[in-house]
Amino acid sequence: MQISFYVLNNTNTASSASSEALLDFVCKLTQTVLKKSELSLVIVDDDAERLAKLDAQLWSFSAESFIPHALLLEPKSLTTEPLSSNPDTHHDTLAAATSSTNALMHNKDYLVELTAPVILTSELPIGFDGAVLNLAAQPLSLTTPNNTPDDQSHTTEPHQAATPERVLEIIAPDEVSKQQGRDKYQHYKNQGFELTYYPVN
């Protein structure tokens, strides 16, 4: 698994402009992931307001290209089965979901959400193995290279650790984001993951 850090070097410190610039970059990065790979993408953010803004921006970001996505407000009810990025396995996942006693599993809109190429949520789905863009303040709970769950993260329980193929982290120019980025980088490094760093001007 590769974990990539994108460090935004925009010197504009106005909070509204910084927030807009961050969401713009997230939309561009989302487009790049969808164009250059066949992986599904989950965007995780613990900021509900920013997640809602991103949901709106993904609909209108580019007139030339549509970014199909779904906003999941209750990620814990996603499914009791692992969510795979492989389109061939979506059918099995949906079958398991349909057989659940949870009424939400029988909702047509819910099934659409499960198969969306991009999913916006506050928590990483159990067992997801595609690409993850983490905007949350904390590092993700992942299965480490030695195949043991990472139990140091505050985002999910150890038994819910995921095994994504790639993780993307964004560090904004503000001091809070920079410190969170340093903490995440050290955390993943201590877990033995392969880390890459990309400055973005």
Number of domains: 1
Spatial gap, N to C terminus: 26 Å
Task: Output the number of helix runs.
Answer: 5
Question: How are strands sequenced across the largest beta sheet?
Answer: 3-4-2-5-6-1-7
Query: Spans of 5+ residues with little confidence (pLDDT < 50)?
Result: 77-85, 87-113, 152-159
Largest sheet: 7 strands, parallel
Strand and helix map with partners:
Blueprint lengths: L1 E7 L6 H22 L4 E4 L3 H13 L8 E3 L15 H12 L9 H8 L2 E4 L9 E4 L31 E6 L3 H16 L3 E7 L1
Parallel strand pairs: 1-6, 1-7, 2-4, 2-5, 3-4, 5-6
Question: Would you mind describing this structure in some detail?
Answer:
- It is a single chain.
- The protein has a seven-stranded parallel sheet, sandwiched between helices.
- The two termini are 26 Å apart.
- The protein has one domain: DNA polymerase III subunit chi (Rossmann fold, 3-Layer(aba) Sandwich).
- It has 201 residues and is an alpha/beta fold.
- About 22% of the residues have low confidence.
- The chain is globular, with a radius of gyration of 17 Å.
- The chain is built from five helices and seven strands; from the N terminus they run E-H-E-H-E-H-H-E-E-E-H-E.
- The longest helix has 22 residues.
- Helix 1 packs across helix 2.
Task: Provide key terms for this protein.
single chain; 7 strands; Rossmann fold; alpha/beta; 5 helices; 201 residues; seven-stranded parallel sheet
Give the structure's gist in a few sentences.
The protein is built from 5 helices and 7 strands.
